[in-house]
Write a structure and sequence with these properties.
Blueprint lengths: L4 E6 L13 H18 L4 H6 L2 E12 L8 E10 L4 E10 L5 E13 L4 E2 L3 H8 L9
Length: about 140
């Protein structure tokens, strides 16, 4: 099995909350950044999806916090798209501090590809990703 796709971020001072922790909404922003970086690494551009008349949508997201993250911490964010047989797919992500590899958070999302004209999820999202990807192996497709 290939290594998980990973993006590194450094927590900036303006991203922390009143207790000095990484703000919860920023976890979501970093997770979104990692998802788009995975798409980019697979050669998938947003304009290519739009040209096919689809766009990614987030249907549900869960964050599970394990340890503190503070300003200055470097964090590796993994990202894996899990495709099944239906219209939706799951994106599993972990956040690890790089200094000691401590698991600090997990983000699990359910997403789909929206047909922008019909305003309904497409039946086989992995096929749309495969069709526009220059390196579908990044997805495991």
């Amino acid at each position: 099995m290939a290594d998980l796709f990973t993006v590194r971020v450094t927590v900036r001072g303006y991203e922390i909350d009143a207790q000095g922790h990484l703000n919860g909404t920023v976890y979501l922003q970093h997770a979104e950044h990692a998802r788009w970086e995975l798409l980019r690494a697979a050669g998938i551009e947003q304009k290519a999806l739009l040209a096919k008349g689809v766009g990614p949508v987030n249907l549900e997201t869960t964050i599970r916090y394990h340890r503190e993250v503070v300003a200055g911490d470097d964090v590796d964010i993994t990202c894996a798209f899990i495709f099944g047989e239906g219209k939706s797919f799951q994106v599993e992500q972990t956040f690890h501090r790089t200094d000691d590899n401590t698991l600090v958070a997990e983000v699990v999302s359910v997403g789909g590809l929206l047909d922008l004209k019909a305003r309904k999820l497409v039946a086989d999202p992995h096929e749309y990703f495969r069709a526009v990807a220059s390196d579908p192996g990044v997805f495991g497709l």
